[in-house]
Design a protein that fits this description.
By secondary structure, the protein is an alpha/beta fold. The chain has a single domain, classed as Rossmann fold. The chain is about 35% helix and about 25% strand.
Length: about 350
């Protein structure tokens, strides 16, 4: 009875639930790119979940599907459900989805210069969101926009609100993007590589700001990144993605101390280590296969140091290893990053 109560409480705590999501792109009549191929995950209220992997793994397409921005055509949702607090998003008409986008779900894009409109002032772009979603007057929205700019750490916000994106530094533009994303107190904040274009010092400031804003507005975060250092600093739980599939899922500490999938191990080995005197960091040989040319078996087989014949023939399932830890691999004896052949 107690176990059933715990499970029910966990279910009530789920903010976003994605099940069997498959998004394919038609390249031509003969080729289909399986960008997202059977993805399942959930995000709980107040949780920061990192979705990690190399370019081409399917991370950005997954995040765009949550806010209904996958271009269709050429993209097509083959199957799956995306539920935000039990509301199915994939079947919502575009008019209803616009209310969810920016209101219930905020988005921080990788490069703010391509996301902010260069011909409108910063103020106009924040005010537009507030007027549309909160039905404020322009005067009320301007006052709130100035407060938002102050909250995200922009000095002289009364002056900056009338400036254009090109007049701001990269770090300030990203702070503006965070202000826009948080302007309507969203339940979920999606951050797609939010610090990639910034220098290291500004990266740290932006990450700390995002976490502070998450606590202030009581939001959850889906963080898309390829930087394991960023993951270690910010995430509660990690989803490792490769070839359009989740290949490992675990709490952040568990993933770093006890990785189970060879791809996760390889990613962790590429992180700089101050205790090692290396001239060059290790790299993962080869590349992520194109989404229209995935191999028959394990999609990581051609790059895996532990590959077996079975790996090339049979696609592994995502299986539970321990509470909260799953991996998609044929090697059940992987311990502490080494293959134990017992």
């Amino acid at each position: 009875m107690k176990s059933s109560t715990v499970e029910n409480n966990k279910q009530k705590d789920v903010l976003l639930e994605v099940n069997d999501l498959r998004i394919y792109f038609d390249i031509n009549r003969k080729k289909v790119a399986k960008a997202v191929d059977g993805v399942d995950f959930s995000i709980h209220k107040g949780e920061t979940v990192a979705l990690v992997g190399e370019s081409g793994s399917g991370k950005s397409v997954t995040s765009l599907s949550v806010i209904g921005l996958v271009p269709m055509p050429p993209g097509k949702i083959i199957s799956g459900t995306i539920k935000l607090e039990e509301q199915e998003l994939l079947s919502l008409p575009e008019k209803s989805m616009r209310k969810v986008r920016g209101n219930d779900i905020g988005m921080i894009f990788q490069e703010p210069m391509t996301s902010l409109d260069p011909v409108f002032t910063i103020g106009n772009q924040i005010i537009e969101s507030l007027v549309y979603h909160q039905r404020l007057s322009k005067k009320e929205a301007r006052k709130q926009a100035i407060e938002l700019l102050k909250i995200v750490g922009i000095a002289n916000s009364e002056k900056v609100i009338d400036e254009y994106p090109h007049q701001l530094s990269g770090g300030m533009r990203q702070r503006v993007m965070i202000a826009i994303a948080l302007s309507n107190n969203p339940k979920l904040l999606i951050a797609d590589e939010p610090t990639t274009a910034l220098d290291v010092t500004v990266q740290s400031q932006i990450l700390k700001l995002m976490l502070k804003m998450k606590d202030t507005f009581n939001s959850s975060i889906l963080l898309i990144t390829h930087d394991m250092g960023v993951v270690a600093e910010t995430a509660d739980r990690v989803l490792v993605m490769y070839g359009g599939q989740i290949v490992e899922e675990a709490a952040v500490k568990e993933l770093f101390l006890n990785p189970k999938h060879p791809y996760t191990m390889a990613l962790l080995k590429t992180m700089p280590n101050l205790d090692q005197n290396l001239r060059r960091l290790p790299s993962i040989p080869g590349n992520v296969p194109p989404a229209h040319q995935f191999p028959e078996g394990c999609r990581f087989a051609d790059r895996c140091e532990f590959v077996m014949e079975k790996c090339r023939q049979v696609a592994p399932e995502l299986v539970r290893i321990s509470d909260g830890h799953k991996a998609r691999c044929h090697l059940p004896f992987l311990k502490g990053g080494e293959y134990d052949a017992q």
